[in-house]
Amino acid sequence: MLGDALKDTEKVRYMRRKPLKGVTCIKKICLLALLCLVLTAWPVMAEGTDKAPALVNEAQALMEAGDYEAAVPLLREAAEKGDATGQRLLGNCYFNGLGVEKDEQEAVKYYRLSAEQGNAPAQFNLGLSYENGQGVEQDYAKAAEYFKLAADQGLDIAQHELGYLYYLGYGVEQDYKKAFEYYSLSAGQNYAPAQTALGYMYYL
After folding, report:
1. How far is CA 5 from each of CA 10, 44, 189, rounded to the nearest angstrom?
2. Whole-angstrom distance, CA of residue 96 vs CA of residue 90
3. What is the pLDDT of residues 44-80, one digit of tens each?
4. Cα 95 vs. chain centroid, distance in angstroms?
5. How far apart are CA 47 and CA 200, in angstroms?
6. Highest CATH level, class, for 51-117
7. pTM of the model
8. Crossing angle of helices 192-203/156-168, nearest 10°?
9. Hey, what CATH topology would domain 120-204 get?
10. Whole-angstrom Cα distance, residue 101 to residue 47?
11. Where does the chain show beta strands of DSSP type E?
12. Cα(89)–Cα(69) distance, rounded to whole angstroms?
């Protein structure tokens, strides 16, 4: 009897593992509906993303012509679509008060959005904001962190600025060897301030 009871229990457990046909059918219908929804929405999402570079190009043309007020709405639209260049350029407009009221905190907000996407100039601008305490509390360690991100991507001005921090020991442990290394990388790209700094180190 005990053996029979155990067998019956196992049968129940086994039966519960089997999917119910009605539930399986409902799941399939839900998955198909979700797939249709994604496929329907995808062209709209793609169109919005593809439009962003064109908005940035148009905005840059306006900026070159000196019409920042007309450029800002285009940059804002591109930034909202997640375009890293649009975010950085909008940050520049806020930082310099071009086409909008000057707002360093708002500039930092857009620099950060762009920097998080790996945009090297935005990483440098964010580092510079931390170095000078503009729009954020001054923090040399944060400045060095963002300069390094941009420097590792080969941005000459970031390599120079990181070398400068190593030379002075601001935000990093003072290290003349690393200062020389980053100055050299920047100078190798013909960045004049780095060439001057490197010449000064040779002179000493």
Report:
1. 9, 60, 82
2. 10
3. 444 455 799 999 999 999 999 999 999 999 999 999 9
4. 18
5. 52
6. mainly alpha
7. 0.76
8. 30
9. 1.25.40
10. 31
11. none
12. 13
